[in-house]
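name: query_chain
kind: protein
chains: 1
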Amino acid sequence: QVQLVESGGGLVQTGGSIRLSCATSGFTFRYFVIGWFRSVLGKEREGISCINGGTENTTYYSPAVHGRFAISRDNTKATVYLQMNNLKPEDTAVYYCARGATYSACPTWRPPSRPDYDHFGLGTQVTVSS
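structure:
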């Protein structure tokens, strides 16, 4: 069955870096959009980045993370990464990766939207101390 497993979260100081991984299985990874979302207790899950599959691998970043985060994928390992640099306390959240339900789930001009994704991982906590 489809599985996505996030890892790499932890505690980091303001200005520090973390790389999250999203290991996947159960589907033909290279064709699918993968997105990253984050949630803070009491708030709706926010789409922050996504990467297309196939030959394009185009990406999207929300304004909140643009210029600080970088998404990439390794089709040989069926894994997507989110390199997070210059972290801020407001980046503290549970981070989730998700599989796009359609090939248009990462249109690159708007944030990834939760209804466009059909499988989510369980999340990994990132805490940025001030």
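note: The two ends are 40 Å apart (CA to CA).
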